[in-house]
Structure formats: C-alpha cells, structure tokens
Amino acid sequence: LCLLAMVLRDRLPPMDFERVLQMCVVHDLGEALHGDVPAVAQVAPGAKAADERADLRTLMEPLPAHLQAQFLALWDEYEAAATPEARTVKALDKLETIIQHNQGANPPDFDYVFNLDYGRKHTATEPLFAELRALVDADTRDRADAQASRTIPPGATGEAAPHPTSPQGTP
Asked: Which of 56, 67, 105, 135 has the most CB atoms in a 10 Å sphere around its CB?
C-alpha cells in the first residue's frame, strides 16, 4: 500500500504525505497477525475492522501509551475516512485489493464481477482514483469475460490444479 502511494505521490492532490504513509503502515499492521480477509469472503459488516483493530492493539502492547494512542488515532481516522489523507489511503487500499484479485492466483470460480462494485464509493472521491478505477475495471471485465467463455473451467475435471508457485503442484 505504501509503495502504491509513493508511486502515485506526484499525482495526488496536495496533502500531508507523511500522514498518508503513516496511515498506510498502520492500516497494514492491522492485517499482520491474521492476514487480510479477502473482500469476497467478508460477510459481517464491521467484523473485519474490529478484528484488525484488536490485532493492532495486540501488536502495540509493548509500546508506550502515547504511541499506542497516536497509532490507534491514525487507524481510526483511516477507518472513518475522516480526512483527505484517510480517504486517499482508503481509495488506494480498495484499488490495490482489486488489482490483487485480478492478478492473483484465484480459484476457478472466483467472482471477478464482485470487483466491479467493490469500494466504488472510495475510488470515486478524486479524478485520479476514478481514472485508475476505469483501468482496473477494464481488466476486471476482461477477466470476467474470459472466465465466462471457458467451456470447461480449470479444475472442473476433478483434478487439483497445480499450486502456482510449485512445478510439482504442491505448495
């Protein structure tokens, strides 16, 4: 997430970029212990955020109270999309998620169409995010169309598909 922000820095509206980077790091720390729940697998609204906040608190236990408060405030600001910096990080996080869905190794029945609505309210906040969203959505549509046009989906023969990182098909 930080790298995406750094790559796009010159095209972002004027804002406190140090705060953007801090928020990116704090946001990702919330996913450090238990990973990020894939967007398509999230069912209970707010549960992911509560779990990530609890994990962040666990990670911060050894820190002095003033740093814990500072980092939690950044996390809460991000979650509420309360500032231009938070809205920027929120939009970048949604775009990054969709890019990962489009580029990652997904199961044969992955719901690419899900991406077309995912995070739209956050990616519509600035012209840059809307421009990037259009590019990512075009890729999503291409993948959904390719998936729909397959006569026999990969793995439909009952054979396990090989793991993408292993030539023998095992992780």
From this structure: 56
pTM of the model: 0.79
pLDDT at 45: 62
**Do residues 4 and 95 make contact, with C-beta atoms less than 8 angstroms apart?**
yes
CA distance 30 to 48: 10
Q: Which of 40, 56, 51, 45 is nearest to 118 (CA)?
A: 40
Calpha distance 73→79 (Å, rounded): 10
Which of 32, 39, 127, 20 lies closest to 77, judged by CA? Answer: 20
Taking each helix axis from N to C terminus, what angle separates 84-103 and 17-29, rounded to the nearest 10 degrees?
50
d(CA 20, CA 7): 13
Residue 16's contacts (CB-CB under 8 Å, 6 or more residues apart) are: 85
Residue 90: count of CB within 10 angstroms of its CB: 23
Torsion from C-alpha of 100, 109, 42, 86, nearest 10 degrees: 20
